[in-house]
Write a structure and sequence with these properties.
The complex is a heterodimer of chains A (114) and B (114). Chain A has no helices and 12 strands. Chain A has 114 residues and is mainly beta. Chain A is globular, with a radius of gyration of 13 Å. Classes of the chains: A mainly beta (114), B mainly beta (114).
Amino acid sequence: AQSVAQPEDQVNVAEGNPLTVKCTYSVSGNPYLFWYVQYPNRGLQFLLKYITGDNLVKGSYGFEAEFNKSQTSFHLKKPSALVSDSALYFCAVRGGTNAGKSTFGDGTTLTVKP
Amino acid sequence: AAGVIQSPRHLIKEKRETATLKCYPIPRHDTVYWYQQGPGQDPQFLISFYEKMQSDKGSIPDRFSAQQFSDYHSELNMSSLELGDSALYFCASSLEASGANVLTFGAGSRLTVL
């Protein structure tokens, strides 16, 4: 069974500082990894994905994530946080051999303070 | 660009009633997914369809059923509603044939069971 862990319920950073939202995964075969963001009362929006290739993936709104196979991690990062980045972030995984569902982590609430 | 359309946006039902949620995927997307997100919870996978055939099944209760029609829209039918069914129900679509694997989510249908 595939699973995702987001160890932090809440991440607080000051505007302009770098941010990291952590994610580790467990899956059979090669992982497909995703980050989604959810604003209040809205659907999830795709940020970025790793399928294959370069371990550092760049996505929307200046976010990036690094795939680390040995640590089974896919942490989300941004060099300089904005107040507007405040939202709920979900990491998701699906196995390369599983064409069906994506499994989501519990979510991490990011709060960026001015 | 066209997005995933879900209806209704809000639905209020009483216990033991039935409810039907509708989802219209992005045109030419071949896969539809249904997720349930309870308050403060991560999205839980319910069921998916690929080319109108059920492709995967998650934690969907026996009281729920879903199908995908010839025009690719999907409906989630919920019967004998319980208080615990109150949640945000998301539909997502993707084009699996392209290998992109990115889910595009609708805005969700919020079901409240009284």
